[in-house]
Amino acid sequence: MSDSSPEIALPLAGVRVLDATSNIAGPFGGAVLADLGAEVIKIETPVGDPARSMSPVDGDRSAYFHIVNRNKSVESVDLKSDEGKSRLNQLLTSADVFLTNFLPDRLASLGIDPEHLLAKHPRLIFGNLSSYGSTGPDAAAPGYDATVQARTGIMHVTGEPDGNPVR
């Protein structure tokens, strides 16, 4: 049997995504878009994504980093420098989507909050992952998987029946 079937285009082929997320949850969203055919460019600080050092580590990447950053190219951009801001703006001119999981005050201090970016790039889709939503008392609070599990009570169903919850 020969493999002469035509190649099927993935649904997001031709879509360009800038993924400025870090750790696990944010980059996972970008990985799904890449799996669906989008060109995803991970924007990473010069220090690197904290997920690079999550155990188990192979070289400069952890298994977690490999999983949630699959099918992406990576570009190091210092968003605090004028050169980095210029590079990001250059990348944004051809981007369809911008993903981030920065806290609101950090977005504003870097000038990459929705108001600033959409004024310059009105066709851009801006996606921001927040642990506690965009409004309410914890909107500006950082959160991670274990924190959210503990606060919601779902951690209670983990671990051994007679033991403590585990993450």
UniProtKB/TrEMBL annotation:
Transferase is among the record's keywords: yes
Any coiled-coil regions, as ranges: none
Entry keyword set: Transferase
Keyword Transferase: yes
A single GO molecular function term of this UniProt record: CoA-transferase activity
InterPro entries: CoA-transferase_III_domain (IPR050483), CoA-Trfase_fam_III (IPR003673), CoA-Trfase_III_dom_1_sf (IPR023606)
Record-linked PANTHER family: SUCCINATE--HYDROXYMETHYLGLUTARATE COA-TRANSFERASE
Name the UniProt record assigns to this protein: CoA transferase
Organism: Candidatus Fonsibacter lacus
